[in-house]
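Re: weekly structure request thread

Next one in the queue (294 aa):
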Amino acid sequence: MTFQESIPAVQKITLQQSRRQRLRTRLAAFPWWLVIIGLIIAATLYLIMRAPSYSEAFATIRSGMLVTLTITLTSYSISLLLGLITGLGRVSSNVVSQNIATLYVEIMRGIPMLVSIFFIALVLVPGAVELVAVFGAKIVELGWEKIGNSLAAMNNRAISMSVRAVVALSITYGAYSAEIFRAGIQSVAPGQMEAARSQGMSYGQAMRHVVLPQAIRNVLPAIGNDFIAMLKDSSLVSILAVRDITQIARLYASHSFRFPEAFTTLSVMYLTMTILLSLLVKLIERRISNNGQQ
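Done, posted below.
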């Protein structure tokens, strides 16, 4: 074979190697983990449709889905508000605001979530109700009987465990949201605040119209991941006898002794919700990244 004849053969070998390399790269980048999770979910759905015991477990547990989603959405909405206020306090130049915000964050981050749920639901909320009742009695003494009597009549039994669970999750996750907002605010270049102030804006106006929009855009993926974490941690409210899907699964398993059916179904239900939310968060991250590059 002459030199000229060997060139096409070399090119053919190089092309084949290039194709193999591209195939290896695609196989390495392929989300095999997602395929495996999809197979697990599909297998569980098959059991739910075909096996009577799994069908019964799913029909029973799904009745708590509305409670789980309601507690998660309500708690996270309140925690975002608490987190934003606390995050602003963390970056404030006011010594009092900064220390109060830091105290709240460090206390809540230093206590295990299960313990904080117990403390807030069974100690803090009853204590707050008693303070409101005492305040109502004082108002009655001042002559404002209509308002005072309604406040003085409050008692712990009037506060349901679902409400206490929402308060506990909101206060706990407010501390974590505060750190997200603090990091987002500090990620905005200081020159943005200085430029806004040089245009005659007050500190509050500059923060509201210039800094916060950029900070929130930067922390959207982190907020999404935190929401997924709260969805999973909402299962902890079952210790307060709140009838979410975890509590119902526990009750069903203890009554029927069908532990595999109950907890397999429960696990896959949480897995399905978190995977869908994770894919949504990744989509948001990709769009934010593409918009930032344009």
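The chain has twelve helices and no strands. The first helix runs from residue 3 to 29.
Next request, please.
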